[in-house]
Structure formats: structure tokens, C-alpha cells
Amino acid sequence: MGAAGSGPQPEVGLPLTRPADAPTPTFYGRRHGRKLRPGRRTLLDERLPRLAVTLPATGEELDLARLFGAPPPALWLEIGFGAGEHLAAQAASHPGIAFIGAEVFVNGIASLLDHLDRRGLSNVRLFPDDARLLLPALPAASLDRVFLLFPDPWPKHRHAARRFVCRANLDRLARLMRPGAELRIASDDPGHIAWALGQALAHPAFAWLARSADDWRHPPPDWAATRYEGKALAAGRRPAYLRFRRRRPG
Fold this sequence. Notes:
By secondary structure, this protein is an alpha/beta fold.
């Protein structure tokens, strides 16, 4: 994720998901990769418009019942879903839960659509844009779980402000998460692990769920592996799996 400012619009051909007067945060990562295969290009053209989250007018809230066809009993959000394998696996394991995935990387969006198509999953909606635009539109206390898995660590000190985990974004998540909701952050970068842990521990709304000195080095029981996680492990990097509970106010 990046920091606020002005930046490029999504690739031409993606559905327009933001109001004309919405801010345009600067995004410092890639939005496009290799040219898409025809099948995945078709998924973007035909299926994404039916699943895309369109933001309401500035100041209004997203109608979740309309988005999913009925009020969702629970809503989980993945911020930056990469190639989508984790989100698709979670959606397949929890068919009664509604999911929103936010991602700007066009190839990753197409990959998730392929996962959804092959598995026949209907409980996922996509926001093909910067998650920071989505958060203000979500109703308060609407999220039961939030995933932020292997984000760009921005290891250089001068780039630390580009990290998603910061006080301002944790404030936003605290507003959106129900008491008892869970925030999961995974990373294989030691600097980012220390940063994310420090930021979350300093926030009064979040309690670390570590039960022992090293359990945060092991994925939770319902974990779904990601492609990037596999690359990290193959390279000898040991990920951390940080879990936090949204405290009850007061």
C-alpha cells in the first residue's frame, strides 16, 4: 500500500468503482504485470463488473445487503490479496461468510477471478482499487476479520510512511471491526514484522493474541498458504503470523 496523494487511475477496461470526487491516493507498487491470457482478460471484462464493489457517493456508506444480495452474517476483508489463492481458499472453507478483497494489481485480480470461476464461489466481491478508498465507505463495526498478508515491507527508512500499518489506518480498522474481530498480519521481513507489531501494540483498540513466546512464528490452524509465503519459505525466510483482537470499547 502507499501513502495519500495523487496517483494513476486503474487500467482502462476495469469497472469504475470510485465517485468522480473521490481522492486518489498515491500507490507506489505495480498495477500491471505481464500481458493477460485471453481467458483471464475475458474474466476481467465479463465477470469483474458483476463482482466489483462500487463506492457510494462521498460521505455515504456501502450497502452490504445490496452488495451480497442479503445482509451478510459475517464479513471478512483481505487487503492486497495478491494472486488470490488465500482469499479463494478462505471463501471455499467458509461459504456462509461474505468476503471483500481489495487489490490494485490487475494480474492478481484476474488470478482471483480465475480461482472463483473454477471453484464456483459466489461469496466474494472485489474492490479493484486502493483499499484506503474502500475503508471510509464501509459501515462501522461491519468487519469480523481482516487480513493483511505479506505486504510490501518498504524496508528503506525513508519509505516507512508508505506502509499500510500505521496509526491512521489502524484507527480506521478499529472503527470498522466489531469487538472481538480479528486482524491478521503476516510478513517475512524482520523490519516490517517489528514495525507492524510495534504499531499494533501501541494502539489501544488491539490486543495481541500470542499465547506463547513463539506461537506467532506458526500459522493459525485455519491458515491458507499463499504463493509469496511459499517463495519466502523456499528462500529460507521465516514468516511471522501476527494476530490481534479488536478490544471492546471502554
